[in-house]
Structure formats: structure tokens, C-alpha cells
Amino acid sequence: MEISLRNQVAVVTGGSSGIGSGIAKSLASAGATVIVNHSSERSRDEAQAVLKEITDAGGKGITYQCDVSKEDQVVKMFEDTVSQFGTVDILINNAGIQKDSKFTEMTLDQWNAVIGVNLTGQFLCAREAIKEFLRRGIDPSRSVACGKIIHISSVHEIIPWAGHANYASSKGAIRMLMQTLAQEYGANKIRVNSICPGAIQTPINKDAWSTPEALNSLLHLIPYDRIGQPEDIGNLAAFLASDLADYITGTSIFVDGGMTTFESFSTGG
Ligand code: NAD
């Protein structure tokens, strides 16, 4: 059995770092041409380093700067991708941020920033991707599906998280966005799913793994007793985007080393 994304074009938002970079590399190694999105000038070098790893391994792609919370920039990213590569087959809605605060001290700016990237950004990219999928229609030389969207959610789509109300709210909402799109466009053969990572070793959660004490306390939440790596998510993303997963739509898949089994109940609660 081979996971093949040959002849397909994938947009990976936030592909310059962490989980997004892992997914970009996995999709490229399965044959997709990957648009490695990055948000600003500051992340250009990181995006180029990811692209270099892809091309050094024989893969194809480009980097593309776009702030996914800005409608005009998202529309342009999809227009430019279609004009350069003909279409888009796969969207990985990965870009995400945290702006943590005790709830009563959370500013409207902190709330809006997180909802703007984590939820509105996923809405805007999904809308532009689905418009393009419908324009192209099914092309069996690419995939049996008309298009695939993978939202990167979180275990916090079901685990409440004190001090992170904006983040947990954005991830809870992604579940309904994903299921609604899967329902609305199922008959068009567009598949929409979410991957819900547990603790993956990336810059977003550096405080949770960068000292032995922090890592030890994190591992108490993970029955499988290791922190996840970006390729743990990339492997699933490549499979989910491929035709091997053609009957999977409208679902959230947790990649969390068992975190959602609630480890603290392992000794009887
Ligand atoms: P990260 O900080 O390494 O990556 C986040 C990426 O999003 C970066 O490439 C960043 O440049 C990009 N980004 C931020 N704002 C953007 C914007 N406005 N437009 C475009 N790109 C933007 O962190 P990560 O852990 O790789 O996070 C990736 C996704 O995974 C996020 O949605 C995050 O919520 C989710 N997630 C991460 C973990 C984890 O443990 N690391 C767990 C659950 C969910």
C-alpha cells in the first residue's frame, strides 16, 4: 500500500514552523507540490528552510507569505496558487497562535487575535479552497475526491483549558466548522476532517518541554509517555489527504499519545 499525492497541490498554512513544517514535508514526500505558507517577513527564512528540505529530498513547492486572518491576502494566495499551479487539491488549515491570560484579565485584543487566526483564518482558507474545488470538479487523474481539507484543531476541542479561553473556544468552534463543511459539501465529494494533536514538541508550547521539570510534568498527562513530534501529525495528514482515506469525512482524529483518555484517572480517579 502506498500513500500517493502525486499530481496534487497542497496549501499548508503556517507551514514554516512546527506541525505545519512536518505536514509540508510529509505531503511533499508523498508527491504533492506544497505551498509553504508563512505569515510575515520575519518567518520568510524559516519557510525557505522548510522548502529547501523538501526540494533537497526531491520534492516540489514554493513559499508564500500571507496572513490568514486577512481576507484580501487569503483570496490572493489562492488566486496566485491557481494561476501558478492550475488548481488546489488539499488545504491544511494549520496556522494557529496562543495569547494566554486569566479570563478576567483577557483583553479584547487577545481574544480577537486568537479567534482571527485560529478560526477566521480557517474559515477564509476553507472558503477559498472549496470555491476552487467546485470550479475544477473531480479529476480522476488527481484524486477520486474533488478536494480535501484538514483542519488542525487540538485536544482542546474537547478538553477545557483554564487560562486559555480564547484558544479552547477557537478549537471547539473548529469542530463545528469542520462537520458543517463535511455535511454541506459531502455530495460534491469534498472531504473535510480535523486532526487534534495532543502535546507536540514545537515553538508554540516551548515552556511545556524546554526544562526537564516541565517535560516531566507534561508526561504525567500522556499515557504513552512521550511528547509528540511534527511527523506524528504529518504521517496522518498524508494518509487523510490520500485516496486511501476516501471514506473518511466529518470526523476529528486525536493524535495525542492517549491524552484524551484522562491519564489522571489511571490510578482510580
Ligand atoms: P508553531 O508556533 O510552531 O506554528 C504556528 C504556525 O502558524 C507558524 O508557522 C506561524 O508562523 C503560523 N501563523 C501564525 N499566525 C499566522 C497568520 N496570521 N497567518 C499565517 N500563519 C500564521 O506551533 P505549532 O505547534 O506547530 O502549531 C500549529 C497548529 O497546531 C496550531 O493551529 C496549533 O493550535 C495546533 N496545535 C499544536 C499543538 C502542540 O502541542 N504543538 C497541540 C494542539 C494543536
UniProtKB/TrEMBL annotation:
Top-level lineage group: Bacteria
Recorded family membership: Belongs to the short-chain dehydrogenases/reductases (SDR) family.
Record InterPro entries: NAD(P)-bd_dom_sf, Sc_DH/Rdtase_CS, SDR, SDR_fam
GO biological process terms held by the UniProt record: monocarboxylic acid metabolic process
Gene3D superfamilies documented for this protein: NAD(P)-binding Rossmann-like Domain (3.40.50.720)
Protein name in the entry: Glucose 1-dehydrogenase
